[in-house]
Each structure stands twice: as structure tokens, then as C-alpha cells.
Design a protein that fits this description.
This is Glycosyltransferase family 4 protein. The protein contains 13 helices and 13 strands. It has a seven-stranded parallel sheet with strand order 3-2-1-4-5-6-7, sandwiched between helices. It folds into two domains: 182 residues, 3-Layer(aba) Sandwich (Rossmann fold); 194 residues, 3-Layer(aba) Sandwich (Rossmann fold). Helix 3 links the parallel strand 4 and strand 5. By secondary structure, the chain is an alpha/beta fold. Helix 2 packs across helix 3 and helix 7 packs across helix 11. Helix content is 41%, strand content 16%. The two termini are 15 Å apart.
Amino acid sequence: MRILHVSDCYLPRLGGIEVQVADLVRAQREAGHLVEVATATPGAAIPGVHRVVARLPFDLPVHPRGTGHLIRLMTSRRPDVVHVHTGAVSPFAWMGVRAAVRSGLPVVVTVHSMWDPVTRGVYRALQATFDWRRWGLVATAVSEAAARPIRAVTGPRVPVRVVSNGLDVSGWRPTEAQDEAQDEAPHDGAPPEAVHGDAVHGNAVHVVAVGRLAPRKQPLRLLKLLEAVRTRVPGQIALRATIVGDGPARGRMERYLKARRLDWVSLPGRFSREQIKELLASADVFVAPAPRESFGLAALEARAAGVPVVARAQSGVADFVGSGKEGLLGRTFDELAAAVARLAGDAELRRSIAAHNRETEPVKCSWAAVLEGFGHCYELARA
């Protein structure tokens, strides 16, 4: 099948959508499909990647005449299906939708974000202006939580399927040596004097979070959550926390840590995938506290690595983490703090969840399942 992906953002940018689309392209090519990408992201030439770029401030991934460029591209390439990837509001991606419709090509639209009330209002206004529900689209969301607000806007005219983000699960599974080290590590707490300072790196319970340090992810809320956990955990149990990532909120987080003297929490910056794998090998608990997380790829990586996950019950993480099985879920700040504190204080519960996560693969998130899911959507769009 000839597939054309359209996305505002693509490599060399490194974000959730960019990495996921690039991995999907690779998996589809390995499955024998002819796959190309159209993007408004500037960068070096990559075979099969068409960069529709305009000179705009801050390299904004949009083109004022993008629809015309994309129509010409689609007319010359004639893909069997156009697969468009959008965030909350993605102007270039929606130019791709319009171009495909005008070119008479089947369209699948994947929404990678959680639509909030403002976003839903925007799409209702666009419906009133363009009547896009009549364009014959097939939509997909990355989780049931993300699908619900989309269905509330699209109604019955636009089918909305759930196709998970994909992950090479085997690549995140811990090695036998790491398994043995985790099983043998006591992590039952350290003397009270080890709670702060360098000594905390001994037998301390290690809490890990990974994500972009942006305001919408509520990173300061994460620091307050860790503070609340510390007050709930018995003093003889040492804690340390590592928050991986970078973004505009980093400065505020560093000032908060210094003001509150949270020297047991570290912000090492952005890590590569290999560095994250190494970090997860030493993690006891993974925290994904954002309430509007449409999927939670970092949480899936942690779950695949065998780490118990604590997340919001109303987020997309709930698609692959069941409370009491792969981790613990909470609907409120207090419930999340209680869940992390419970895992920190109960080594046996951590071990049992970790063993379950190591032995049980999240099948729906494998690339085989993702390719099958999109294959059904492509056929539905073509029909």
C-alpha cells in the first residue's frame, strides 16, 4: 500500500508525535508498504520526506500556502491513503486533510492529544464553517480517554477508532542481570539520616518521571506531589526522585527545589532512549501525574521495563495500566500521593507488580497490533 503521512512536526524535532510518527513509518516500511511523509518542519533532506517549509519566525511548522503544495504532492504521488497526524490544533495537518479531500483521496486522521473544552469549541466552530463531518474522514485516537471528547464533537458521521501508540516492547524489557539486581535489592528503607543528601542513593526507593517540562504537563504539581509523598512515608524509608526532561518550566522547578530544600529530587535534563532504559532499571516507581495525558508513552516504556506505574485514572495511561495489576491509579492529587506512598512503603507490592509487568506484555501496544489497527482504518477510509 502507498501511504502518505502528513504531520506539522517531524524529525529532526524530538517530541511525542514526531518520534511516534517516525517509528510508525519505519514499522510500515518494514512490513512492505511504500511510505512517505509530508511535513512543515525544516531540516536536512531525508529520503521519502517532503518538507513543505516557509520562512517563518521560530521555524513554526506551518505554511501559508500549504494546501496547494500538498494537493500538488498528492496528485503526483497518488497514495492509496493519506494519514494525517494532529495535536490539539495543527494548521498544516488540517491543510493535509483538506488537500486529500480535494484530491479525492481516502483520509485517516490520528489525534495525538486530549481535546479540552476550548479545543472542542474550536472544532465545533470549524464544523459550522466547513461542515468537515461530511468529508468522509476516519478518525483514530491513541486511547479511550482521548477518544471520548472527540466522539462528542464528531457525532456518528465520523467513525473514531482507538489505535494505541506503538512500542517495541522487547527493546524495553530488562535484562536477566537487571531482573536479578531488582529482585535482590532490599529497597525496604534506609536509616533516617539517609533521607537527604548523597547517602540517599543507597537503598532509597527511587521514584522516576519522564516528560517534557511544559506548563500543560503541570511539572510543579509533580514536585508538590513528591513533597506530599515524603510526608506520608515513614521516616525510616529513604526516597530519591529523578525527573527526566527539559522545557520552559525547568527554571521554575529548579527554583522551587532550592527554596523547598528538596535535595533528594534531581533534574538531570533530557535523556536519550538508552539513558532512559538505564534509569528505569534502577526505578522502583514511575509517576505520570498529568490529568490530561492522552496516552503516556513514557509510562508505557516504564511498564514494559517492569516498573510499577502510578497515573491518573482518567488519563490514557489507564488503557495499559490496571490499578493493582500494572501499577496504581488515582483520580485526585491526594489519591496519587497515597498511591506513590503506598508503593514506597510496601516492597512486596512493588515486587509483585514489577514481576507481573516483566512477565506480561502490553499486547495492544505492540507494533503488530498497531499496524493491524491502522490497516483496518485504512480499509474503512477507502471504502
